[in-house]
Design goal:
By secondary structure, the chain is of the alpha+beta class. The protein contains seven helices and four strands. It has a four-stranded antiparallel sheet. The relative contact order is 0.26. The structure holds adenosine-3',5'-cyclic-monophosphate. The site of adenosine-3',5'-cyclic-monophosphate has 9 residues, from helix 4.
Length: about 140
């Protein structure tokens, strides 16, 4: 597996509890490198676009509202097999199903307020990175 990039968001429930550093520590200890990072307030338009694939889901409105409710940290992570690696490090979407030691097991409040997002494929990673970063922002 070659070096790959994935897109990560530290969500409002985590920034509210001052967990950015704690989550970054788990990311770095797993061997992933944070090659771009910015703390932002997501606009409604950005959140709607980002989660467009979930537009028909019953939780879409709630999800957009949550993601715009406070600061988030958008990140680009780099490493060997980064997409799959980060999904492993995050743990299952529902924290009740997440494995011990994963970010969601450690920190998530619920399936909605689950502390982090990570891309589910290399193709989506590229699209998601492009929504929030330009090439010049990424210092590998
Ligand atoms: P994320 O990886 O950011 O991608 C989609 C998000 O939708 C997911 O994490 C969850 O936070 C959220 N989500 C998924 N299922 C539910 C649900 N049943 N209720 C509320 N939010 C959900």
């Amino acid at each position: 597996m070659a070096i790959q990039r994935t897109f990560s968001i530290i969500k409002p429930d985590a920034t509210a509890r001052n967990l950015t550093g704690a989550i970054n520590k788990v990311i770095e200890e797993a061997g992933l490198r944070i090659v771009a990072q910015r703390r932002i307030l997501m606009t409604e338009g950005q959140a709607k676009r980002f989660y467009e694939v979930h537009a028909e889901r019953p939780f879409y409105g709630e999800l957009v509202e949550f993601m715009t409710s406070g600061p988030v940290v958008v990140q680009v992570l780099e490493g060997e097999d980064a997409v799959a690696k980060y999904r492993e490090v995050m743990g299952a979407t529902n924290p009740e199903e997440a494995a011990d030691g994963t970010i969601r097991k450690l920190y998530a409040n619920s399936i909605g307020e689950n502390s982090v997002h990570g891309s589910d494929s290399p193709e989506n990673a590229e699209m998601e990175i492009r929504q929030f970063f330009s090439q010049a922002d990424i210092i590998g």
